[in-house]
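Researcher: I'd like a structural prediction for the single chain below. Treat it as a standalone chain; there are no partners to consider.
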Amino acid sequence: MHMENTENLSLAERAYRCLRNEILYGDLMPGDRLRASELQDRFNLGLTPIREALMRLSSENLVEVDPNRGSRVSDASITELTDLMATRREIEKLCLTSAMTHGDTAWEGEIVAALHRLSRTPLPSSKNDRDAATQWELQHRSFHFALVSACKEKWLLKFWNTLTDHSERYRKYRLLQHIEQPAQAQVRNVSEEHQALMDAVLRRDIASATNLMQEHLNATEKSVARLLRQIPSSTKEAS
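Model: Treating it as a single chain, here is the predicted structure.
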């Protein structure tokens, strides 16, 4: 899969970014075991930077470290998804309102450019097309960040980024299932949703834009929850 250029980073930082990218966009799924020796071979890095990366990701709740059982990618559960998305909707509403109040023409231009890039990025053609999935997710996140980037409250944006990180590892369930299980993935026309969101934001129609965003996030949550219910109970909380 595609990875960012990490040549000029420290070994610990490189290990952290590579592993984090795999958890959010790549092959590592919730509940997967993280054996340090296998990660060394996978990323061609030493044991010390791998261990440092695992501890750092543990502090972000992306990895669970158990002294007796080892490390694994944090589990997915419908309970967590519901809590996560409810919190994200509240934070997103605050960020979007602030951005629409303070944003300038440069901000508007970046939104238009971000949606254009997203519209030109193909969806994965199969469940195994991880590189395409990664590229689409990165452009999708770029568009959503463009919408809120003019928010003046920096702590709100930090919370937005943290919540979005955790949303990404749930979203990839849906993205990678949209080809093989369209009914279960509840495929919808997200391009139209994104266009409507952008139009409302550029009109500075706060009520319409925030309502559209709530509906957009609600729809994603429902489709991901439906897919989670089909995953064996060993990788998720029973529902």
